[in-house]
Specification:
single chain, alpha+beta, Cytochrome-c3 Hydrogenase, chain B, 3-stranded antiparallel beta sheet, 15 helices
């Protein structure tokens, strides 16, 4: 009999191959995973503590740096929480603009995730294709607010400025261009034999485990749970649009990629409806004071980010600065399932699993 012993291996912390500054402590028997424990904290930037020394408005740019691939959605979640706390109303046109930019950002985030999932399995070309389309969205955001990654676009009671001339036409042009590209991605990656062999029946997450671990977003929906806050607890003007909630069956890496692909289709549907019906009017509630002092109290509000349930809990002491802010990160909860779904698989499968969970360490190490 050949004697073997288990080996501990550090996967990370390095940025390129782990979707962020993640370290996974892996216990191996040969190339089989016995244990896999994520070790986070290498990107900690003290977001929640910094907020206590800033005014409510000054916090908005910090939310951009949480889930940075979807900065617009972070702006939205935080702004809606403060509006709920202070009783601020938002003009109808501003709500439509918010939905348009949030769904564009959802597509941009999913393009990054979908392309990286292919690259993790050795399919580098799909990553380049996804970034090609993502560039159109980034150009639209630059046209809108002058920034390409961290936008600082939303304000309490609306947005910082109205849609510029030509934005609606350019966005319609993008939607028409992008819809056939989604079909192309499906053929290129999801129907690819090599990727299917690498991703199907790998990292299977059962429905009951997903719920008990607090998983949300595409990770939860890939298990067959049809839960999306845009439908189940509608916010903004999402209840005015017709769209579906894609779900998977097996909860594996392939299903998670499939759900994100289908969500891009649904986001295009929402954007097209919003562009056709966007009302005239104000883009910002001008009655909101420059130095906001919400009443004493606390509030929690959550929305559907590209990674799942993103929420903010805010405690106000009546001053111009929040007494306490707590961010509920969907990526944090989703990452916690790695020790559950990794044992028994090969070390190469761990890379596919990490990519399928789509972690963003700006909001994990907040």
């Amino acid at each position: 009999m050949i004697k073997t012993e288990e080996l501990y291996l550090n996967v990370g912390p390095q940025h390129p191959s782990t979707h962020g500054v993640l370290r996974v402590i892996v216990k191996l028997d040969g190339e089989r995973i016995v244990e896999a424990k994520p070790d986070i904290g290498y990107l900690h930037r003290n977001f929640e503590k910094i907020c206590e020394s800033r005014t409510y408005t000054q916090v908005i740019p910090f939310t951009d740096r949480l889930d940075y691939p979807s900065s617009m959605v972070n702006n939205l979640a935080y702004s809606m929480t403060v509006e709920k706390l202070a009783g601020i109303t938002v003009p109808k046109r501003a709500e439509y603009i918010r939905v348009i930019v949030a769904e564009l950002n959802r597509i941009a985030s999913h393009l990054l995730s979908f392309g990286a999932s292919g690259m993790d399995a050795g399919a580098f070309t799909i990553f380049l294709y996804c970034f090609r389309e993502r560039e159109f969205i980034v150009d639209l955001f630059e046209m809108l607010c002058g920034a390409r990654l961290t936008y600082n676009y939303l304000r309490f009671g609306g947005v910082s400025q109205d849609l510029p001339e030509g934005f609606i036409e350019k966005t319609k042009e993008f939607c028409n261009y992008f819809k056939p590209k989604i079909d192309e991605y499906e053929d290129f990656l999801l129907n690819n034999y090599i990727y299917s062999q690498r991703a199907k029946n790998v990292g299977i997450l059962k429905k009951e485990n997903a719920l008990s671990y607090g998983a949300s977003g595409p990770v939860l929906r890939a298990c067959g749970v049809k839960y999306d806050l845009r439908k189940d607890e509608p916010y903004s003007v999402y209840n005015e649009f017709d769209f579906d909630i894609p779900v998977g069956k097996n909860g594996d890496c392939w299903d998670r990629a499939k759900v994100r692909l289908e969500e891009m289709r649904q986001s295009v549907r929402i954007i097209e409806q919003a562009l056709e019906t966007i009302p005239d009017g104000e883009y910002l509630n001008s009655q909101v004071p420059r130095l906001l002092k919400p009443p004493v109290g606390d509030v929690y509000h959550h929305i559907e980010s590209p990674r799942g349930e993103l929420g903010f809990y805010i405690v106000s002491d009546g001053s111009s600065r929040p007494y306490r802010i707590k961010a509920r990160s969907p990526a944090f909860s989703n990452l916690s399932i790695i020790p559950l779904i990794s044992p028994g698989l090969l070390i190469a499968d761990l890379i596919i699993i990490i990519g399928s969970l789509d972690p963003c360490f700006g909001e994990i190490d907040r």
